[in-house]
Amino acid sequence: MNHIIDTINWIKKDYKSYPVRFSAEVIAWAITIGCSVVMALTVPNPPLFELYIVWIIGCVIYTWAAWTRGSFGMLANYIALTLIDSFGLYRIIIST
Q1: Which residue, among 59, 49, 61, has the nearest Cα to 90 in the 3D structure?
Q2: Torsion angle in degrees (nearest 10) through CA of 32, 36, 37, 43
Q3: What is the distance between the alpha carbons of residues 62 and 21, in angstroms, rounded to a whole number?
Q4: Are 13 and 37 in contact (CB under 8 A)?
Q5: Reduced to 3 states, what is the DSSP secondary structure of residue 80?
Q6: pLDDT tens digits, residue range 19-77?
Q7: What letter does residue 15 receive in the DSSP assignment?
């Protein structure tokens, strides 16, 4: 039970330290979960163009959050994902 209380306290502390970042991360989390659910429900013909746009927005939000948090691992990951998925979106655009 202490782990749950410690986690709740950590979430409260994180929110109080930078409420804008915390809110942005929650929005980005909802975006990525939403994209994953839409992808899973629409396979084999997902709306990739729309999903890529929304997913990239979520990655950019996470990139900013990682930068403000000072997290190199998350920053590198979300920069890479933003670039890779932007390339994928570009390929969709030029193929239509």
Answers
A1: 49
A2: 150
A3: 9
A4: no
A5: helix
A6: 999 999 999 999 999 999 999 999 999 999 999 999 999 999 999 999 999 999 999 99
A7: H
Is this prediction's pTM over 0.85?
yes
Q: How far is CA 85 from the centre of its chain?
A: 12
**Distance (Å, rounded) from C-alpha 26 to C-alpha 53?**
18
Report the candidate in 12, 24, 11, 14 with the shortest Cα–Cα distance to residue 65: 24
Burial of 25 by CB count in 10 Å (0-12 exposed, 13-18 middle, 19+ buried)?
Answer: buried
What is the sign, positive or negative, of the torsion defined by CA atoms of 3, 66, 49, 27?
positive
Judged against a pLDDT cut of 90, whether residue 1 lies above it is answered with: no
Q: Cα–Cα distance between 93 and 43 in angstroms, integer?
A: 20
Residue 20 has which token pair?
A: 């804008």
Token digits of residue 64:
């900013």
Residues contacting 92, CB < 8 A, separation 6+:
48, 49, 52
